[in-house]
Structure formats: structure tokens, C-alpha cells
Predict the structure.
Amino acid sequence: MRELAEGLTPPVAAPTWRGRLSVLRQILFRDWSTGVGVTVIALFILIAALAPVLMSHDPWMINHRPNGSIARLDAPSRAHLLGTTDLGRDIFSQVIVGARAALLVGFLAALMTTVVGTTVALVAGFFGGWVDDVLMRIVDVAYAIPFIPFVIVLVSLLRPSIWNVIIAIGLLFWRSPARVIRAQVLSLKERPYIKAARVAGAGPWRIIFQHIAPNILPLAMLYMSIEVGWAIITESSVSFLGLGDPLVISWGTMLNLAFTTGAMQRAWWWVLPPGVSIILLVVAAFLVGRGVEEYANPRLRGEI
Amino acid sequence: MPVRYLLRRLVQVILTLWLVATIVFLMFRLIPGDPTSALIDPTFPATLRAEILRRFGLDRPLHEQYLSFLSHAVRGDFGYSFYYSQPVESIIGDMVINTVLLALATFVLTYLLGIAGGVLLAWKRGTLVDTAGSLVPLVFRAAPVFWTGMLVLMVFSYRLDWFPHAGLRTPGYVAASLWDKYASADFLHHLFLPAVVSTLYYMGFPMLLVRNSVLSNFGEEYVEFARARGMSEARVMFRHVLRNALLPVVTSAATFLGLALGGQIIVEYTFSWPGLGREIVMATQRRDYPVAQAMFLLLAVGIGVMNLLVDLLYGYLDPRVRLR
């Protein structure tokens, strides 16, 4: 009934930021899979924050066996919950502290790309004309650049560091939200309440940020959660290829060492934990994205 | 096929590639870190250093370097590799073939299995098969492809010793002919693991697409009509629904090929597959910039051409899409 009534009342008032943000809670806990996603992400944030307490060893420390020899590639035991690396470093502690790099890259890169992509989309879609043409041609070029090679080359030229990985991701990944959200802006700007705002004398920036942006929020959130996942995968891939920050322990650099030292042939305890952590975090981000998508796209709500 | 549309798209692709080439050129020239450091030993006397810079044309002003880079690249001349001490184009040939073969194998497997899986999920919609089947691709999508590769290597190569862990062929294998080089059992044996691993990664994409596309077609009137005529459910699915549902899958192939070509780097690196992607990684590690540049541009050309092809194919398959 409520939907029906909504459809009948003339949509004059634009949704406000406050209204949209209260909706956020409904989105994040709308069904069990989204709830699981949010919970897993929250857990990882907790792990990253409490890393110093949770770690059993210094992740860089070279550990020794009781007999004094270096604990090279020890299998999981009471002393080392997830075993050790070829240099005798504690894998459990490395996995814990690796959550920090993953979350940092994931959220920062996603935030950057979403903000840039959404802004480009709002400006291009709203102003149209040559502004739109120029911006969309730039998006086309960004799509024509092979992504992983770009990140690899840029990171290696700028010296491997976690910040350069974030920058490299940020330079290209804004392309997909820009393209998709622009299409949404194009349809939104023809709505009656936008015309009403214009007649009432609202300037273009006011219309963009007060009236159009709140409606874009679910879609922007969808892209943000997807890009959190992609950014984490990208960081781990780049690190795996040997271009990770040598001073930061990330799940990707752990796997790189397990691979290049050849320890993966038997040390499953070095390969499984970082990979499983990546999957958990990325699946969680995708699940949240799916929940947001079902909210943002009413056609999907009716199905299944 | 409208010629004007073809021309316009062609010009667009060329313009985009020109911009990408410019970005590549600038990236390698303007970024901190001397690109000549790989080439020139700091102990070299200044005259020798100047001579090397002159021979590679690195002493000229930037705009001259840019023009000569473009004019040579257009002719397929990418300069001289610092590492191999050979012209870049002479080392590229085999790598292009290797990359394309792996990408094609992945493409065929991905779409065969993806479409089959999507139909299955749509068929069993709302059941446990559907729920579980929708989650599996999500997990493979989230698993970094190198990690899946490592697991597969650990199990099937190191433990069970069923498949080789690296390369194209068994060392010492001499192919009798070009045909034998790629159609041999030995080559396919090496191709299997990398192709399967990348398929697992990409498969979810066409699978969920087919599922949703089939489901949305089920609501159409022509399906009701076909059922009303007493057709079996299988006939409705394969004769009518699937034909229409495959359209978005065809366009998605553009995105897929772009992704696969660019993303194949990681699979190639994991399985030591001597293709373009692995070479980019090796070349950047060796600071062999002419090679890295060339590989980068080749991948961009590959992506551009694929996108163009699929656009044309789409216009041909769906008459409702008018090419202008």
C-alpha cells in the first residue's frame, strides 16, 4: 500500500541526505547475506585495530626452535599457531597484521575511486554538452588501458610502496562508476523535482549536490563496496608479482614469498591462511555490494 | 554492415590507442628514477655514457623522442631490448602466440561452462542448487587467481604429479613442425592447468549473466505463448529463451576479452607461461623499458580490436541495435 501511495503523490520534494543515511542501516542489514558481509568486514577491522594485542609474535622476528636452530618452515604447532616461514617468522602474526594493509588499500582506494568517479559522473551527466564529451572520452581512454599492466608499470617506476599501489588503482578504477553513475544522472536530471528546483532558482551546484547526489548514493555505495574487493585483489596481485611494499606485510607479499622461495611445494600453512583471508574479506565486500545492488535496483527486488 | 559506422569506430579506436601510446611514453619518461640506470653502469666514463644515450636516442629533446617513438611504433618497430640485446619485435612473436592461445582456451572454456552453468541455475531457480551455485562463482571471483593457481599447483602438480608446473613444453621436446608445436599432447598437457584456473576465475561472470538473462526472458510473452502451444520446458529453454538470453552474453565477451588479456599476466606468471603478460612483469623487474612499453601497447591494441569486433558482432546479431 505504501508504495502505491508514494507513486500517487506528486514527487516534488527531493530526498534529503538525512533520509538517505537512515536508509543506509536498512540496506546494510536487509538480509542475512548482507549482514554476514557487514559482520565479517567489522571483524577484520577489529582484528586490524587490535593487531598488537592479538599477535603472538613480532611478525618480522626470526624465531628459533627450543634447540636453538632457526624455526624454518615449521608446521603449525602450539608455539606457532599457523607455522613459520622459511626465515622462521610467525605466520599467524603476519596474517593478523596483513589485515591492516588490506583494509587500508581496500578502503582508501575505493573511497578515492568512488569520489572521483561519482564527481565526474555528476558533472558530465548534469552539464552535458562538451563537458560530457570530454569527460567521457577520458573514460574511454581509461578503459583502453590494460589495468594490471598499468599498475605494475606505474608502481615499479614510482618505487614499490603501498601508497603508490593505492594511487595506481585510483588513477584507473574511477572509470566504471563514472560511466554507470553518469547514465543514472542523465535520467535523474529529467525528473520533475529537479525541474522544480531549477524553477525555484537553485544553482547548478546546489541541484547537483542537494538533489541529485543523494539519489546517487546507493549506486555509489554499490561501486564502493565492489571496488573495496577489487582493490584488495589488485594489491595482493601486485604484491604477488614482487612489486609489493618491502616494508609492509600484506597477504600478497606473504604469498609472493611462499611462491618464489618454492616453499609452497610443501608448506600449505604458508599458502592457505593469507589466501583464505583475502577470500573472506573480498566475498564480504561483494556480499555487501550485492545487498546494496538489490536495494538500488528495484527490478532485482522483485525477483527470486 | 554500414561502412560509415565501421570507419567512425576505427578512427575512434586509433585515436584512443594514440592517447594510450602517449600516456605510455610519458609514463616511462617523466617518472622519477632514471630509465637509463639499467643500461649504464655508474662507473662508465662520461663519454661512453653520452655515446650510449646518443645511440638509443635518449639525448634528444622530449618532443623529438616522442615523434620518433610514435613513427616507429606505427611501423611495428619498438626499439632495441636492453636485456635481450635484440630488436624488440624479434622476441615478441612467440609470446603473442602463447598469450593468444591461452586466452582463447580460457575464453572457450569460460563461455561453454558459464553458459551451461547459467542455464542450470536458471532451471533450478530458487532451489539449493541455485543458491549454492550463485555463491561458488562469488568465491572464485574473490580468490586471487594466483592463489587458486598455487593451490592447483600444490595438489595436481607437486603432490599428485599429474600436470607439469611450468612452461609450455617439456624441456628438450623438439617439435617436428609448427602444427606439432601447438597441437601436440605435450602442449595441451601444459595448457590445461593455467586454462582451467583462469576459467574458474572468469566463469562466474557469464554464468550469473546467463542466469539473470534467462530469468528475465521467462517473463516475456513469447515464452507464455510457446508454453501455451504445448512445448516442453526443455524446448522452450533451448529453442526460444536461450537464443534471446545470449545477447547480453555476447556483449559481455568484449569486457571479458579485455579483462582476460590484461589479467592474464598473473596466470602467466604463476604458471611460468612465456606470454606477453609474464614478459611485462619480467621486463619491468629488469628495467627493460623498450620491451615493457611494447608489451603494454600490444595488450592495449588487443583490447581495442576485441572491443571493436564485439561491437560489430553485436550490431549484426541484434537487428534492434542500429549501428550509426
Residues 204-243 of chain A form the longest helix (40 residues). The interface with chain B takes residues 140-141, 143-150, 152-154, 156-159, 229, 233, 236-237, 240-243, 252, 255, 258-259, 264-266, 268, 271, 274-275, 278-279, 282-283, 286-287, 303-304 of chain A (CB under 8 Å).
